[in-house]
Amino acid sequence: MTDPAFWRGKKVFLTGHTGFKGAWASLLLRRLGADVYGYALPPTHQSSLFVTARIAEDIKHRLADIRDLTTLRAAMVEAEPDIVIHMAAQALVRPSYEEPVETFATNVLGTVHVLEAARHLPSVQVLLNVTSDKCYENNGGGAPFSEGDRLGGDDPYSNSKACAELVTHSYRHSFFNARGAARVATARAGNVFGGGDWARDRLVPDAMQAFLAGEALRIRNPNSVRPWQHALDPVLGYLSLIERLASDERFVGGWNFGPDTASEVSVGTVVDHLIALWGDGARWTADAGPHPHEAAYLRLDCAKAHRELGWTPRLDLAQGLRLTVDWYKALREGRDLRRFSLAQLEQVAGTAQA
Description:
By secondary structure, the chain is an alpha/beta fold. The chain has 13 helices and twelve strands. The model has no long low-confidence stretch (mean pLDDT 94).
């Protein structure tokens, strides 16, 4: 459980706040009473959660690139944060094949820039770098990955996230190891979904866009197994970890935040759920390709977070997908998505108005 008393009045510097998961994190942090300072590129879709929930009204933010160290450093100095949460990234596998240089520059050098800017600020108590479950070297065997497993990745995205983990490890041991230094951790989550996501080549937003347009969803690998979870579940895990880090250095290092085993299912299973929830003639068809390589199985072992943080997912697969479909239907109906998104947040997180 998150502790509103911990977050009330805390200054949080959040990179990637205009992105899908970053926007949900912004809403939650403000609901808990934190002062949020966002740093990210402009939102890429007019119906993103950041836009529709009018998050810019609640936070101080700067639209800029984490590859620009000078601007990033100035923004962080101005914010003088207690906590840094790094979510900004090129977050997709397929675009990483199209733009590998941009992917590595953003995900690796961008991480270096965040760590470098933070290490010179004595106000920073905790820094959390959000990476990905794809940071693990995946041999396709299907066994769940735990935090001590080998890092790696064949595609540029996965590899860049493994590199970001290594960069964080280096900075933690080289620059954040003195008494009083910020405590640094990384968080690795699975395939997240939820309202306000419009990323291309990601299953749930692809489905929502197809169904809104009355078209068939085209899917590549219906038998691929992934850990599926609503975005609020790992975000709540991140905040729980930060609370522990603030008081105990034993919580530094890497942490998995994935769904229960029952939510580690195939693409086809998720699509069947979405079609049943959407109705209105929703359907799918096979996309013959060509497609870049993707691992057939990816699972996370989250026993460490369960045991040491007391964190468990609050939503199962069906509940998370129901919230997601409801959000896109609310968009179609012209509902007030700020009010609607805050209601969903309250339903999942149980927060009180800050």
